[in-house]
Design a protein that fits this description.
Four copies of one chain form a homotetramer. Chain A has 228 residues and is of the alpha+beta class. Chain A is built from eight helices and seven strands; from the N terminus they run αββββαβααααββαα. The longest helix of chain A has 24 residues. The interface between A and B is medium-sized, with 33 and 29 residues. Chains A, B, C, D: InterPro entries: Aldolase_class_II_sugar_metab, Aldolase_II/adducin_N, Aldolase_II/adducin_N_sf. Chains A, B, C, D: It holds the Pfam family Aldolase_II. Chains A, B, C, D: Keywords: Metal-binding.
Chain lengths: 228, 228, 228, 228
């Protein structure tokens, strides 16, 4: 697991470098699907002193396997998503500023441009509020449950993130690095959408043709962006 | 006092590092409760040339005990708060941009999300205006008086800061480091709330269950965030 | 071509330095008019590992002349503009935040001040939407076509950039360096106009006299700004 | 003049360090009142290559006294102000983002808080528009004339800056360093006022008592801020 710990450590350190977190307000995990083990950031440890060997290993039921620290308090959210979605290899949670503002406003982030469409197919959804019961019993697990309800039968890699109501963004990808990449994109897309909506609150979403064009330039069998 | 001077010096230097102050627009103090002495930043000294030994020591009545500089002109505000609240070990005043904007708008910062609820229980209050008499006679002391009126019988560590009307934020904590931490949080929370309110001016505050959940994850007997 | 590759490489590297791009979301090209060859950034290569020798050379019809990478997926847009406008020596495309927000809002950026008028004569236009057919057949080429339709018979060096609807800014100049300069200016002008319009949505454009004065201080036979 | 050139050079270099200018969009000057000579930035020279010896010396009528470059194209504005106001020892012009946005909106920056009142007594005025004739004949000189009209009989050190309509801020002080300080303050005050006004467009200005209190803490015979 040393290699995966190193990658998860570096993915966590990328969050402050990209300006996505204040203090310890974020966490990244990744899963080793063969062994059924998840590596995740420890809870409340400052980025300045954190080391790769401080990463915590748990199984998908949340049992501690390895580590001298408690795992992130958001671990049950990550595990709920890993159990449901085999496509997810890495998950990121942040309180990045503009994405969190949309979550506080309780609004989906509308698909207003090609920057958005390059990564997210359609609006970036905001979850429904949790009930008081869901908050009081297994709150973190229920955050994962409501994310899954919101995703429905969408391909999670075509909606590689969403915002939890009054809380903040969760993003994912095929591995931890891609999840962080999507978290950076979501914050920038949230900022652009916020700017556009303050100019004109009655904006129309992207035409279907343009949305398909941009998403398919980067994804799927006929992608022609990049070098592969 | 050399050790406390060093800590207060470093806490003051953290303000420009976190982007909370322009020029000399801020100050941090801490109190040694056993000796009844307060260490505070000198007035109007540039951060680039300030040294630990420039910190000023006064007693809680404001008498100069040690130091070759005048104490911060806001010292009477700090002392008024230290005299009233034994829970306060450190106090910070800044003119951080978004918190000050809410103070200029004369509005409480509404509790719109979990980022807020992790640190502040309920809205972050804005004080009432001072009367002309309060401004003209012992202005700085009266700023502390009106902060105390606004706090009322709340636990100051559950409302670890507020904004003074048309002025700016004051924050506190069990020591100077925690007070600075809360000042950073207040500014970020103020920024997120401003962004959310420009998207939708009619936002609802956090549900009570979610507010309790997040505040109690970090505070009180059943806290489970972090490592202790 | 080694020298032009070096210049185009440096012009591309200037984009992240000026905060205009996230990840690989931008590209710069330049043309050697004598040889009819265009040098452009490769598609999807990270700025941190890109080298001058990775730049791709194509002819103005888009045939690969030199390079071990695919050219930018936006190459057909650049070529369409080079074929139509002999005055263009360099072209830049970014998704810079504020310019893209105006593109998503579908609005021309109004000429509100002298900062704008120093570089752009009149509003910075937003193109019309592409039709579904234009998106589905030769999308990138058609982006160039609609930019040309929008320019009409204007001198492209007096309108050295515009925003493509729901997409983002394209800028140009007599060479790659000037094109990058204009992209930096467009983003700053877009930011100022956004700020001004949120204060007052019913702003008037610059008077004609002031617009001519500022534009002609820097351009044309009687320019008196700078040292030439 | 070598010493004043060095100071004016450093004051100019402080503008990009404080984030007030893009490219060459700003200039600082200072006057030697005994000799009647003004030192000012050369026109259009990049900050990265500018040296102290590149500063230009002119007399108060604008005649070139010393220098191998043309003076800033805004020199006649500076000279008009130096001729009228013996209190001015240094002048700064920038296109700093938020101050320029207020100028483009054509609005005075309202005195909304103590941050403002510490430096500016009352609103920061926006000049009237220049007439077409004023733009076409001695434009830069007339910019100084309209600033003086707007100041009226106010003490220029109590209103140490204003914004020129659809253009941007001009600031001044007893020397170049103080003028730059005031330009930094004006930009931050403009940003805070913009944020406050987007929360609540119907804000009230500071009470007279609070305004006098803060201004007089830093200015005049009974000042008690700082160390003098």
């Amino acid at each position: 697991m040393a290699q995966l710990k190193q990658r998860v450590f570096e993915a966590n350190m990328a969050l402050p470098q990209h300006g996505l977190v204040t203090y310890t307000w974020g966490n990244v995990s990744a899963i080793d699907r063969e062994r059924g083990l998840v590596v995740i950031k420890p809870s409340g440890v400052a980025y300045e002193v954190m080391r790769a060997e401080d990463m915590v290993v748990v199984d998908v039921q949340g049992n501690l396997v390895e580590g001298h620290y408690r795992p992130s308090s958001d671990t049950p959210t990550h595990l709920e998503l890993y159990r449901r979605y085999p496509q997810m290899g890495g998950i990121v949670h942040t309180h990045s500023t503009h994405a969190t503002a949309w979550a506080q406003a309780g609004l989906d982030i509308p698909a207003l441009g090609t920057t958005h469409a390059d990564y997210f197919f359609g609006d970036i959804p905001c979850t429904r509020p949790l009930t008081a019961h869901e908050v009081e019993h297994e709150y973190e697990k229920n955050t994962g449950v409501v994310i899954a309800q919101t995703l429905g039968d969408r391909n999670p890699l075509h909606t590689p993130g969403m915002i939890a109501y009054q809380h903040g963004p969760f993003c994912w990808g095929k591995d931890a690095e891609e999840a962080v990449h999507n978290a950076v994109v979501l914050e920038e897309v949230a900022r652009m959408a916020w700017l556009a909506c303050t100019l004109n609150p009655h904006l129309r979403a992207l035409d279907s043709a343009l949305q398909h064009k941009h998403f398919n330039r980067k994804h799927g069998p006929n992608a022609y962006y990049g070098q592969k």
